[in-house]
Structure formats: C-alpha cells, structure tokens
Amino acid sequence: MRRVVITGLGAVTPLGVGITHTWPRLLRSKSGVLSTHALGPKFSALPSQVAGLVPAGRKDDGGWTADEWVVTAGERRRMALFAQYGMAASEMAMRDAGWVPWREGDLAATGVCLGSGIGSFEDVYETSVAFEKGGYHKVSPLFVPRLLINLAAGHVSMRYGLRGPNHAVTTACTTGAHCIGDAARLISYGDADVMIAGGAESCIHPLAIAGFARARSLATDWNDRPSEASRPFDKDRAGFVIGEGAGVMVLEELEHAKARGARVYAELKGYGLSSDAYHMTAPRADGDGPLLAMKAALRNASITPEAVDYVNAHATSTKLGDAAENRAIKNLLLGEHGKRNASAINISSTKGAIGHLLGAAGAVEAIFSVLAIHENTLPPTLNLDTIDAEEGFDCNYVPNEAQQHKVDVALTNSFGFGGTNASLCFSRYQ
Ligand SMILES: *[C@@H]1O[C@H](CO)[C@@H](O)[C@H](O)[C@H]1NC(C)=O
Ligand SMILES: *[C@@H]1O[C@H](CO)[C@@H](O)[C@H](O)[C@H]1NC(C)=O
Ligand SMILES: *[C@@H]1O[C@H](CO)[C@@H](O)[C@H](O)[C@H]1NC(C)=O
Question: Which residues are the active-site ones (predicted)?
C-alpha cells in the first residue's frame, strides 16, 4: 500500500500570509476578523459588515502584496485574486517541503489539485455590469480564464512545469477537504508521487455577502465588534463570518519522501465522503445519525473512534450547524458503551479566529490539524464565552486559549451547501 504523508504547508489567511505568521497568531488567540466599512459604501449597506480579511502589507511582516507573489503585471492580469492566493500558498508549501522539481521524471510525478468554492465573483460582477452598459467590446479576453475555478491549479502547474494530474474540485465549503482527500487518492493509486493540494477563495465582494446574508447564513449582530462575530459553539452564535485566503499542502508518497530525506509533518491516514441527500443549505434535522463522513474516514484509516485525540470541527458559528456537528461527534467518539467522558473529547473550531474561508476552509483547517499533531497543541475556539449547556455542549472546546496536549490522531470535518460532507484523518507518522 502506498502511504501518503504531508511534507509541506503553505497558507494565506486573515491571520497572515504564511504559516509562520498564521499559526503563532492563532495560538495567541488573535482574530483576523475586521469591519468591512473601509471597503466602501456598498459594504456598509449590508446586514453583515464583518469579514476575515487577509491583511495588506509586506511579505516579511505576514502581509499580502500581490506583486511579491505574482511578479509580472501580465501574470496579475491573468490571475484572479483567488488564484493569486492559491499560487502564493502553493509556493510556500513547495519551498517548505523542499520540493521544487526540475527533472523531467520528477515533474511528471508531481501534480496539483487546487479548488475554489466560488472562484472570481468580482470578475463575473464587473464584466456583467460592463457588458450590460457597453456591450461586446467591454468584455476582456481574459474574462473566461480569470473566471474558471480550475485555473488556480492551471497556473501553479504552469509556473512550476508540473506535468502530473492537474485537477480541481468545487464542492462549496467542502472544496478544500475534497481536494486534499482526492489528491491523496491519486497518490495511492499511483497517478502521482507528489501532489500540491488545497483550496483558495477570495469572495469578499458586496454581492457575495448580500447573497449569503439573504440565505440567512451570516452573523449580523456584531458589526460594531468584528473580532467577536465568529463564535462557534457559543450560546450567542448567530451565523458565520465570511473569510478569504488559501491553504495548500504538499502530499507525498511515503517512500518518495523518505528517499529524499524530507521532513514529515504527519500522515494522511483516512478520507471519508458522504452526502446528506436532504436539503440545499440546512443540516439533516434528525442530526443524531453519526456522521457518515467521519465514520468512513476512520474506517479508511483503520483507526477506532477511541483513538481520536482532537477534532477540528467545521462549526461555522451557526445555531443549527454547530449543534448537529456536536451531536454527531459525540455520538461517534463517546464510543458504543459510553467508554469515554464527553469532557475528555477535544474539539475546536478555528473559524472563531479567521471566519469561514468557504472553499479554502477545509484546506486551512487540515493544516491546523496537522500542526496540532506536529506541535502537540490544540488551537483555540475564539469567543467561546458561554457554553450552550442545553444543547449538550459538554466536550472540551478549547475555549479562547490554546492547550498543550499530546495529539496523535486528528480528524477535521468539512460540510458544504448541497449536503456534501468530508472528513480527513491525520495521524503522527511512525
Ligand atoms: C453532514 O454534516 C451535517 C452537519 O453537521 C450533519 O448534520 C450530517 O449528519 C452529515 N451527514 C453525513 C451523511 O455525514
Ligand atoms: C484507504 O484509502 C486508500 C486510498 O487512499 C486505500 O489505498 C486503502 O486501502 C484504504 N484503506 C482501507 C482500510 O480502507
Ligand atoms: C483532551 O485534552 C485534555 C487537556 O488538554 C486532556 O487531558 C485529555 O486527555 C484530552 N482528551 C483526549 C481524548 O485526548
């Protein structure tokens, strides 16, 4: 059996550009959620005026400056922002892994699987408006390539000359997890030895926020206190906070990684996928059926529920979603005979600090889960001030402060509109 390990990590998040900026800030309980007022009057007219924004600034300070990553003006014109974030995260992950191949065989054995939930909202909007006003001649020849979701993967392949699989997934908020899971399968089945895998999103656009607000998904009560708006598992949680960024990991076949003496962060042990087959946006009402995706991931990993040390929950800070996931995790992890006490189950939702990165969320959260194992640290759930006891929230949710604890096995969940669920199981490499 071909085992898959993680050898490189890269991220662009509201907490900073680069893992070396994002992770320490997460552990110091910093928030990347800000007011959207500075973005203009269209934003200020919306019911939800907060977002997880990638900070502007220089690379060395953990800020985003496009031309430090997408060097030529021509490239910047060809790449929408989500693709630029994906490119930056891929570059960081590849350098972190020490894998920037140039030999023909290595290039053919390396692929990319990088998706996005929505792609470039901005381009659709601007071009629609321009077309309506000015007609055909107002449509840029770069419109279609900037729009297409798989072009983030395409640009990464082109920049590095990678000739293996060139793939992208788009399954709403499950995109990032599906990209990583599918990429691992491609390695298992021998389609590639190394995969650059993850998700990217940049849809901090007034129309996107309007759409999610109309779907009644967003937090609207915290416009004057942005850093408190995303509060998974808290009694006062009232919707998610939209966020942007990208997360990418280098997945590598174990023998390949060993042969080149690569550092191994963790092993990707299991991947599970399932569907609710129930409703466009709401979780199943019965909710108490254990999550099929988590069960499948553990089955694939040959790991028992009792061995799971940490769950990075999807929990987006919505009333129904957090409660349904909590029930499912408890059902699964408490064990058939209640062998475990709920307070010994460790769950956190890092969305408290960065908001919901939609198509990038699963990838960024997979990175946090891998780091939890690598550094034996549970990242905190920000803004968890009042536990909702009535809803059965009696696990350890790592409220507000990180905890040091040995983590050998971590699960991370992602659920998306359309009822699509996935779970990834990582373990310490032995
Ligand atoms: C999918 O996730 C939702 C949200 O937590 C959960 O209610 C549902 O049971 C899950 N479904 C499956 C099939 O795993
Ligand atoms: C888990 O999935 C991998 C493919 O990624 C496969 O090679 C392996 O046999 C599966 N293991 C089990 C126990 O299902
Ligand atoms: C959860 O974390 C606490 C403290 O960090 C620890 O004592 C406990 O054993 C952990 N539970 C599991 C199942 O690992």
Answer: 173
**Domain regions of the chain by residue span:** 4-266, 271-427
pTM for this prediction? 0.96
Q: Which ligand is nearest to the CA of 341?
A: 3
- For the stretch 129-136, contacts whose Cβ atoms lie closer than 8 Å and that sit 24 or more positions apart, written own/partner, are none
Q: Extract the tokens encoding 417.
A: 């509109």
Nearest bound ligand to the CA of residue 334: 3
Cα-to-centroid distance, 410 and ligand 3 (Å): 12
Q: Is 235 left (phi over 0), alpha (psi -120 to 50) or beta?
A: alpha
4-266: which CATH topology? Peroxisomal Thiolase; Chain A, domain 1 (3.40.47)
Q: Which atom of ligand 1 is nearest to 275's Cα?
A: 13
The reply to whether ligand 3 has any atom less than 6 angstroms from the CB of 129 is no
Span 365-394, pLDDT tens digits: 999 999 999 999 999 999 999 988 888 899
Per-residue pLDDT tens digits for 232-271? 999 999 999 999 999 999 999 999 999 999 999 999 999 9
- pLDDT reported for residue 403: 98
CA–centroid distance, 325 to ligand 1, in Å, is 7
Name the band, by pLDDT with cuts 50, 70 and 90, for residue 287. Answer: low
Mutation test of ligand 1: which of 233, 278, 281, 284 has the most ligand atoms closer than 8 Å to its C-beta? 284
Q: Supply the residue whose CA is at minimum distance from atom 9 of ligand 3.
A: 344
Cβ burial, residue 276 (10 Å; 0-12/13-18/19+):
buried
Atom of ligand 3 nearest to the CA of 310: 14
pLDDT computed for residue 419 by the predictor: 85
Of the listed 113, 173, 395, 425, which one is catalytic? 173
395 is catalytic: no
| CB 247 within 8 Å of CB 198 | yes
Is the pLDDT score of 355 beyond 60?
yes
275 φ/ψ angles, rounded to the nearest 5 degrees: -135, 145
Q: Ligand 1 center to residue 266 CA distance, Å?
A: 26
The CA distance from 333 to 317, in Å, is 21
Average pLDDT over the chain reads 95
